[in-house]
Amino acid sequence: MKILLVLLACVVAFAFADECGTLERLKIKSQWRRAYSHGHDREDFAQAVWRAIFAQVPSARGLFTRVHGEDTKNPAFIAHALRVLGGLDITINLLDQPDALSAELTHLERQHKGRHIPDNYFEAFKTSLLHVLPAQLGRCWDREAWGHCFDLIAHGIEGH
Amino acid sequence: SEFAIRQADTMKSLRLLLAALAVVTAVLADHHEHKVEHHGHEHDHEAQIDKLLERTNKITHSIYDFESQLDARLDPARIRRAGSLKHRVEELEEHHCPQHSHQCGGDDPQCISDLFVCDGHTDCRNGEDEKHCALPTKEGDSFVGDVVYDNCTRRRPEHITVEIESVTIHKYYTASPDIHAHIEIHTDTDEEEAHASLPADGIYTFAHNELYLYPPEDDGLAFLGEFDGYDFDHFDGYIIHELSHKACAHFVFTRKK
């Protein structure tokens, strides 16, 4: 059954190259479930994503001093990294429910407002995710669909 | 590597000793000549000096002999062969680490996430995850594979050539470099002769020493090359169904010199 689902998610996506269209959203949901994993694997996934973000924009650590961004292995930072992925998880899972998604994005936008996060930090997050994902997923994944749908979510949080 | 450092020290002292002997020999030989020129009758001294020279040569020989014995023990090709054998045994054993994780090895076993191998941060207690990070598939490299079995490719070739066109190592995430390759297939049947050059993108994963190329055609057949982690001149290449991960063809690849 699992293989069948993955199979469906892979085949379905070839058809459309829309800007995070309905089928792309379903595909992202399914691929995210595999990548997000659970337990230790999830912690490691979060760790890899954040290391790659800070490697691109070291100055971004400054925003995370409260959660010990200077050391990504610090328990406080691990908790934070998991919290962020938790937020991403909610938005990805709501990709096929536009009303709920837009409410969640408004909520996240309010949380990020006033923190003066430059757009290139969101870009760094995207680049990082798009490189750790293939390593995490191994085989079947669609870079284009991820690019489209991540942009949709990030722009929602940025408020533009 | 501690052993290697000690070894290097031994080598250094041996070389110094050799150099010293060479100087002694040269001085003695020089002295010898002078003696012959000026006092042709000093046979006693000559005999003694000859003896000394002979003895120096013998010592030099023993030192060289000892050095070559050391070299034979440290021969990289031999260490590689032993590693390949170890890898084959490990493949037969039950895996000690959960899926998607890497065994740090050594006397102190530890499992770390695949995502951390060669990412520039030391995660293994013994530092092993950052020690073997030389990419075996460099730009311009070419590997020729001979068929073992083939139940799925369209062309059923005897040989496949994988040519590495470009390699991109991302500074912010070095654990899985992007690879762009060409899969060259030449077929020659009674009816026709054909050549195909399929461009394919993929990634290299240090955690498993694997080269994965996404399906170059729309038949869903991907390419997976597995190095054993020691011998980087050969690898097992599998054609696998992208969705089921089932291998349906196997080729054994050798680096083209």
From TrEMBL, chain A:
> Where does the secretion signal sit in this chain?
1-17
The chain's disulfide connectivity reads 20-149
Q: Name one GO cellular component term.
A: hemoglobin complex
Query: Which molecular function GO terms apply here?
Result: heme binding; iron ion binding; oxygen binding; oxygen carrier activity
Q: Where is the Globin domain?
A: 19-160
PROSITE patterns referenced in this protein's UniProt entry, alphabetically? GLOBIN
> What keywords appear on the UniProt entry?
Disulfide bond, Heme, Iron, Metal-binding, Oxygen transport, Signal, Transport
Question: Looking at the record's lineage, which domain of life comes first?
Answer: Eukaryota
Where heme b binds, per the record, is at 112
Entry-linked Pfam families: Globin (PF00042)
Its family remark reads: Belongs to the globin family.
Question: Which PANTHER family does UniProt cross-reference here?
Answer: BLR2807 PROTEIN, GEO09476P1
Question: In its UniProt entry, what is this protein called?
Answer: Erythrocruorin
State the organism of origin: Rhinodrilus priollii
TrEMBL record, chain B:
Q: Where is the Annelid erythrocruorin linker subunit C-terminal domain?
A: 136-256
Taken from the UniProt record, the cysteine pairs bridged by disulfide bonds within this chain are 118-133
Signal in keyword set: yes
Q: Extract the SUPFAM superfamilies matched here.
A: Extracellular hemoglobin linker subunit, receptor domain, Heterotrimerisation domain of extracellular hemoglobin linker subunits, LDL receptor-like module
PROSITE patterns linked: LDLRA_1, LDLRA_2
- Top-level lineage group: Eukaryota
Q: Would you indicate the residue range of the signal peptide?
A: 1-29
List UniProt keywords, sorted A-Z: Disulfide bond, Signal
Identification of the protein by name: Hemoglobin linker chain
